[in-house]
Amino acid sequence: MSKSLISRRPTFRRGVSAGDQKTTPASGAPLARLGWKPFFQQQLSLEELEAFEPVRVTAVHRSQIEVAGERGDEPVLVSGPLFDDAVEKPTVGDWLLLERESRKPARRLERSSLFRRMAPGAKQAQLIAANIDNVLIVSSCNHDFNLSRVERYLALVKEAGCRACLVLTKADLSDDHEQYREALKGHRDLPLVLVNALDRASVESLRDYCRSGETLALLGSSGVGKSTLLNSLAGSELAATSGIREDDSKGRHTTRHRALYAIPDGGLLLDSPGMRELGLADVSEGLAATFADIGELAEQCRFADCAHESEPGCAVQAAIESGELDERRLQNWRKLEREIQRNTRTLAESRAQERAFSQFVRTVQGHSRARKSGDE
What we know:
Layout: H1 3-7, E1 12-17, E2 20-25, H2 38-41, H3 46-51, E3 52-60, E4 64-69, E5 72-77, E6 95-99, E7 105-108, E8 114-118, E9 125-130, E10 134-140, H4 147-160, E11 163-169, H5 178-183, E12 192-194, E13 215-219, H6 226-234, E14 259-262, E15 268-271, H7 284-290, H8 292-298, H9 315-322, H10 327-375
Parallel strand pairs: 10-11, 10-13, 11-12, 13-15
Antiparallel strand pairs: 1-2, 3-4, 3-6, 4-5, 6-7, 8-9, 14-15
Helix pairs in contact: 4-7
């Protein structure tokens, strides 16, 4: 890392790309402010430090990605083997190594965390973001609040190993905040903050999640106030906002693509389009952590293979009858478990088909080269 990279104070500029405004560090911003940590530094050899420059992906578009590094912001064309694999290709938050002269991406560094979902009707996982440190699960004090959806997000966050906080916006429009605290009694380890996202003073308690060098993701459905919350945390208008329908409290997709925003004297904020459908796959550990209380009760059941339905000596059903466990929680756990098993199986089958096709292509190419060699 160059000496000037450490000593120069970062400045910020506003740029426009693909019709959307976003703010990222200008030239001279230290990599540490972009989230560079020993975890990534240790992946580089001395030769790579000489030949390549680490940059972080701040936005992904169809034909190019935007990155930020010691030279500031720059576009990188989406081409080459690094972008061929739908699952392994760079996503927002990834760290890449660029050749110092050609500015071509050489490789993607191993991720410290990865968020992905099964898109509706898809057989492949859709990448959301990588290398996230903290997550604000954003809902609101209206019709949008849905505890089962919160648990779905939480399973994803816990699988990634990130620190989570549940933020309920529009708190100024509700007189009964106790109902939300009561609903979350099964998640006592999940911090809950009620805010008015339009009031910067109201969101001050959330700044611990976006300190310098930390990357914070805002996840939630449309219309809950993610972009408004982002703007209040940043202290400026970084993301466009819009209203919601009064009859069902649902909003429009204000954010069109995922992008990282750097804020002065702070970390980086990830704003993403609202996701009402968040298909889960390969998050069994996250699910177990989200429903740890059910797992602990299951260990007390008389039978090891208890299905927690009508078996004698079922500690889970006993907890429901006593009011210790909400039956909705058990039903949601079952639903998510079935979904994860189904989607994980679909992913495995898709990967097997891709490997078989790749092997077929290599075989055909090998035979073609052999025929050409024989003709010569």
